[in-house]
């Protein structure tokens, strides 16, 4: 069953556009990772600094591989400059029927 | 473009199963609402009390209709007994390319 991940990101004031660009630049490489099904950036409505990544992976192994990939390491370094605090990464197991 | 919603829910100790059942019972009715695309419950890995709803709607109007539906009002009342704190409902706008 698909494994979902929700990551809550808060940028420093004014760093939203740079975050959006960093994610856009790496997104296709992330989706090319085996078992990465979704890597979608969202912005909290009415916020300039609060973002949420909605991600999905086929397996825990796929999530682990993502987390140790060169792209992820590089992205984490880049985001370190842009975020006001470390991201909250929430790994989720589905409960009951699922649409995706 | 699809509107995603992430709702963070923390139950009182031992109320997880009751929350899971309450969501399971109402899920098909929620998905029957016009423009409701996803209504999926997740549990935070290694947690007995932390849950996340991942929802998706075609439009803001669809989300509003969901929020004022009889099912939502009834569910909110039922969850009031089970949650340790009010849910954090995060309405999201997509940024850049999206998978879903």
Automatic annotation (TrEMBL), chains A, B:
Keywords, alphabetical: Monooxygenase, Oxidoreductase
Pfam families the record matches: ABM
InterPro entries, alphabetized: ABM_dom, AI-2_Isomerase_LsrG, Dimeric_a/b-barrel
Transmembrane segments: none
GO molecular function, one term: monooxygenase activity
Keyword presence, Oxidoreductase: yes
Domain ABM: 3-91
Repeat listed as a keyword: no
Protein's UniProt name: Quinol monooxygenase YgiN
Organism: Mumia flava
